[in-house]
Write a structure and sequence with these properties.
Layout: H1 3-13, H2 16-75, H3 83-93, E1 99-102, E2 108-116, H4 117-129, E3 133-141, E4 146-154
Antiparallel strand pairs: 1-2, 2-4, 3-4
Helix pairs in contact: 2-4
């Protein structure tokens, strides 16, 4: 005799009330399992979407971080210099001649005249890579592909 036949025999031996209770119990177990399965799928789906979004954000930030790392590597150990010396070093790396004015406190004003636009933008990128804050910037076209600029710089936060 197989187990299915044993189950059928015992089920038919039960009274009508017991059979109904067994059917309702079986349905409630199946319903509970279905609800648990659906809940698990929804939860895992939400977690997967959150992980995918997190990875998308990391991938979106990668080019900017790579650019910053490359700039910092190019600047080398000079990153720990005082603001005035660091600004001068960054300008020299772009072949830019600057007029640097020191004022009250740690702020520095930097001026350049007739600078190639691409070199000025690369210099600003280097300032950003070293966490130098540009608190005020004035850039004026000075001819074909050249600009005059004045920047107020704050040292990186410790």
């Amino acid at each position: 005799m197989n187990y299915l036949q044993i189950f059928k025999d015992r089920y038919t031996a039960l009274g009508e009330r017991d059979q109904r209770a067994l059917r309702l119990g079986g349905l409630s177990i199946v319903a509970t399992l279905l609800i648990a399965a659906v809940f698990t799928v929804i939860t895992e789906s939400r977690n997967t979407v959150a992980r995918v979004n997190e990875k998308r954000q990391v991938l979106a930030d990668t080019p900017a971080l790579q650019d910053r790392v490359q700039r910092l590597q190019r600047l080398g150990p000079y990153n720990a210099l005082p603001l005035e010396a660091l600004a001068r070093r960054i300008a020299q790396s772009q072949s830019i001649e600057l007029i640097i004015e020191t004022g009250q406190g740690p702020a520095v004003r930097v001026r350049g005249s007739g600078i190639p636009f691409d070199a000025a933008m690369a210099m600003l990128g280097d300032f950003e890579a070293t966490s130098i804050a540009v608190t005020r910037a004035t850039v004026v076209a000075a001819g074909s592909g050249r600009v005059d600029f004045e920047l107020d710089l704050q040292p990186p936060a410790p």
